[in-house]
Structures are given as C-alpha cells and as structure tokens.
Design brief:
The chain is α/β, with parallel strands linked by helices and 171 residues long. Helices cover 43% and strands 17% of the residues. Strands 1-2-3 form a three-stranded mixed sheet. The chain has a three-stranded mixed sheet with strand order 4-5-6.
C-alpha cells in the first residue's frame, strides 16, 4: 500500500470546545455519525481528542447494570465537561505521510485517530476506519488489476486465439 494520509483523511472535521458539556458532544457525535471529535481551546487550537469510548466512560450507569448497547438517551453528570474526558496529547501526522506510518503510530500509541496536518496546521482527521477503507479499496483495485492481467495474458496466448474463435462462432 503506497497511499498517503491526505486523500484518505476526513477534511470536513467538526470540533468540540473543551468547555462543552458531554451531552452536547454526545449529541454532536450522533448527529454527524462520527466516533471522534477533536477538542479545541478558546483560541481554536486543537488540544485533545474525544472518542465515543470516552463518552461511554462518562455515562451515568447504575452499578448493578450491564449494558449490551449504549442506551438511546444516556445520562451524563451535568457538571462534566469535555476537557475532563478527552485524551491528550493528541497524535498528529502530516498529510504527505504514508498510510503505513499512520497505522504504526496508532498501533504504537494505542489510539484510533490522528489529526492530519499540513505545514503544522490541522487539515483533517484520519481514523482506523479510514485506514481500513483505504486498505480494502487498495486491495480491491489490486485484485482487479491481477484479474485483467490474467485475462490479457490468456487472450494473448495461443489459447486466447482459440477462445476468440469459439466466441466468434457463438460457442
């Protein structure tokens, strides 16, 4: 896989403020169907990352309850804010870096998202899901290329001319 981070990253990133309440962050994640929200400070500088797992940790849950799934309307302590549950420092990667480097950073750091930068400014986010999609697309393309190469080799061989003759004859 010789793909770079930039084209695989999400560039329409929605941010959450460090002082936002967790209910707001949860509803935002649900609305835009994401599992990661970069966290910004009052100067709009990214200072952390809030994930769906962080929100799960923050949800009010009776001690004797075992969840199979997240409740439809989870409850959070109204005093809890994003900053209390976000992860920091954040991992970053330049948009020109290879995807393999992004994957290695995520594995080594045990994280599932990186902020993508260009000239040290945030331009997007790349997640493990983005890496998996790129891997699938790259391998699907590779399989199609192999299939086309095999068909091409067959049609250029003596067997290919026999197949073409049979096809022309309607057989």
């Amino acid at each position: 896989m010789k793909l770079n981070v930039g084209p695989q990253a999400s560039h329409n990133v929605v941010y959450v403020n460090r002082l936002d309440h967790l209910n707001h962050a949860y509803n935002l994640m649900k609305k835009i169907k994401t599992r990661h929200l970069p966290v910004v400070d009052s100067h709009n500088q990214i200072i952390g990352m809030l994930s769906d797992r962080d929100l799960l940790r923050a949800m009010n849950k009776p001690l004797d309850t075992e969840w199979v799934a997240v409740p439809a309307n989870p409850e959070f302590n109204p005093e809890d804010i994003v900053q209390q549950y976000m992860n920091w420092p954040i991992g970053t990667i330049d948009e020109s870096a290879p995807l393999t480097q992004a994957a290695q950073i995520m594995i080594d750091s045990k994280i599932s998202a990186l902020v993508v930068t260009k000239d040290h400014a945030a331009v997007g986010i790349i997640t493990t899901e983005d890496l998996l999609k790129a891997f699938i697309n790259d391998h699907t393309s590779s399989l199609k290329d192999v299939k086309n190469q095999i068909y091409g080799a067959i049609y250029r061989s003596p067997v290919g001319s026999i197949i073409q003759s049979l096809s022309n004859a309607g057989i």
